[in-house]
From TrEMBL:
Key word Acetylation present: no
Name of the protein in its database record: TonB-dependent receptor
Naturally occurring in which organism (per UniProt): Bombella apis
Keywords assigned by UniProt, alphabetized: Cell outer membrane, Membrane, Receptor, Signal, TonB box, Transmembrane, Transmembrane beta strand, Transport
Pfam families, sorted: Plug, TonB_dep_Rec_b-barrel
Residues making up the signal peptide according to the UniProt record: 1-30
Record bears the keyword Oxidoreductase: no
InterPro entries documented for this protein: Beta-barrel_TonB (IPR000531), Beta-barrel_TonB_sf (IPR036942), Plug_dom (IPR012910), Plug_dom_sf (IPR037066), TonB-dep_rcpt-like (IPR039426), TonB_sidphr_rcpt (IPR010105)
Amino acid sequence: MVIPFRFSRRTVTLWCLLAGSMLTGHPVWAAGDEGREQTAKGQMARPGQPDGKADIRKKSVGKDRQQADAPPVETILVKARRREQMEVKLGGQAGVLGNKKGLDLPFNLRSYTSSMILNQQSQTLGQVLQNDPSVRTTYGFGNFSETFIIRGMPVYGDDVAINGLYGISPRQLISPQLYDSVQVLNGASAFINGAAPGGTSVGGNINLQFKHAGSEPLARLTGDYTSRGQGGGSLDVGRRFGRDDQFGIRFNAAGMDGQTSISGERRHSVALGLDTDWHNDDTRISLDINYQNQNVQQGRGSVVLNSGLTAVPRPTRPGRNWSQGWSYEDMHYVFGLLNVEHDLNSHVMLYGTFGGMTGHEEGNYDTVYVSDGLKGTGFGYGSYVPYQQTNESTRGGVRAHFRTGFLKHEVNAGGSALWSGASTGYAGGMVGDTSLYAPGVQAKPASVHHVSATPATKTQLYSLFFSDTMSFWHDRIALTGGFRYQHILQNSYQYTPTHYSRDAITPVVGLVVHVARHASLYFNRVEGLNQGLQAPARSSLYPNLVNAQQFLSPTRTVQYEVGGKYDIGRFSASLAFYRLDRPTGLVEDYGTEQIFKASGRQRNQGIELNVNGEIIHGLRFNGGSALIQAKQVKGDYVGNRAVGIPGYTINGNLEYDIPFMKGLTLTGRVTHTGHQWVNVQNSLRIPNWTTYDLGARYTFMMTPKRPMTFRFGVENLTNSHYWASSYTAFSSVNGYLTQGLPRTFKASFSTDM
């Protein structure tokens, strides 16, 4: 089969004319001018027409030609501007429950669209999630991986899902240009997606959706610039073809390179995506193949606070870099997904998904440990870490709709599996004395040298799930009940070899009540699940620990949530009240000895408000607030707040279309985060912080049929000095500090070809 693949609409139309017919059912930005002329000529030449009617036809053709000479520029411009608008939708891909509208889900799920990613020139997933009031982003320990905090619980890059499947996303940094939407589920999700391979995602879940060809042809070229000297661009091409548009192809290429707004830091990235799909009346198949490379040179990392500090160091000048020039990280990933859906009949659908990812990472890391908080002095530690990983992930099941009396049922049943193998190595050594405020130049230690990666861990996750959503009273009430059986197997081969093989059943109960056409109330009781806690080794502190270094049963995080949603399409809002209880480890007396148990408890409870959409004509808002109280209710520090979790967060994004200048839109964003405790004793904390972003974009017609958009923005307008996060993955140590970015200028243009 020869595929007509061209960037120009005029070229496509001419090809159709030569073929003797028009492409049917595919509106381009404006109706095809040549197509209207050809149709008119065909009618005019129709045999048996009286002469008078033929003359009328000729006059009509002349009029059509005059109209064709003046293409509907206003229509094209309006459609182009709408594509650029900030948009956040309630609902999305809800794991085993499938794609759901927000009002029909007993969970809090939002989708951030690709137009927002493009307009804000987001270069990492963390920059996209800066728009969410309930999400905050920090770095992983000692590297540049992004970690996302949702309801006070972490989501590692390892545990970001793609199309509802774990294990196939890049592990540390994710290029968002490959995805059509970024979806955030607030709350525990062990039933919806299963246990995450990295052991996180117990307080929330992040899911990405690949781009696929839409009903309209697309060929978009984008160029962008970020201060101090970072340039890049992207190409996004999509077409559908064949009878009834059966075939679709979408190609994305994006890249950037240069110095960031942090002194000495350089970043380079390449992302390539080829996404294809095919469908007929009862079958849908898609295949996605992607590649990503991220490289960071002299990246400014986190600051580790040693024990015994009496003060938190003040933030440095925002653009200062305390890392050494020999530090770097290079990450390569190849990943993809095959998805098949088949309708047996109008009531039963079978589906299967298979994905895989292979990754190679290596880097020299320079971590600063602060010993004197007042002076900001301490020492540096260098390390070389190679990391290789290969994952395979699959999910399959059946979804059936049927009635029993007055009840309507949607039954989901199936299973999932994930196989992961990782190899790594380590070489490290002391760099020497340093200071945050005057780091100086230090040589890489001789002990930091290349080592080979050897097998480290092997993880296997298997699960079976079943649910039934029963609705009645004209679908106004829907009750969901179900469970997932999960088996977790993990073998570790380095240092102290360990074997872990445990299983658990996590139930789910959800209720939705549609109180009005555009409003619903909901409730859920659901659990998060991850590998059980490991007891510490015997030491002078725990000399008689009977279960030293043993693993406990899988840890369950229990959530109760109640809330309400309102959605009229152009405007939506949601309000949620929740409580999460997560077990923590405690060493207790066991006769004359000691034993480690998961008998402690951390309770995170809060309120979340999200508002999205058009407030008045031309004025759009996205944002909200999250209040959270995360504290120990049983354990060594009862009543103390958890490290690195702010008591409240506020986000507000505004867009305003200037009425007296068509095509011009002003943008602004305010981000505010409350103070965060740095240590478990709650004696040290970092203050609250606020940043302001301003920008504008202008859409106009470069040619009569090609719209172009220019964008300009300034992030952290006031160049605020602040510590953005003090989160730690280790509950017994101080948090590590991540400094916010300095004032950053961004500019870009996009044109449809």
